[in-house]
Design brief:
28% of the residues lie in helices and 7% in strands. With 82 residues, the chain is α+β, with helices and mostly antiparallel strands.
């Protein structure tokens, strides 16, 4: 863990690597706010592979545009709502 910036809430945890968050066992839900970048797709995939629920409005990460994502719910027993 990195020292947190002054703008963080006193009890917030700060990490420099977003992949650390999507792999962390205490994280249940990931909200993707990056936008149409490759890292957004990579984070969403990593989150689902780690059994997390994912919320995104990113069209590049939706089941309609990302063929691989259509297989995520079946493997991880999620309902497929993105």
């Amino acid at each position: 863990m990195q020292p947190k910036p002054a703008a963080c809430a006193p009890d917030a945890r700060y990490v420099a690597d977003p992949f650390e968050l999507v792999r962390h066992p205490d994280v249940d839900i990931v909200v993707e706010l990056f936008g149409g970048t490759q890292i957004a797709k990579d984070l969403v995939l990593e989150a689902v592979e780690n059994g997390k629920h994912v919320v995104t409005a990113n069209k590049n990460c939706s089941p309609n545009t990302a063929t691989k994502s259509l297989r995520w719910p079946a493997r991880k027993k999620r309902d497929g709502a993105v």
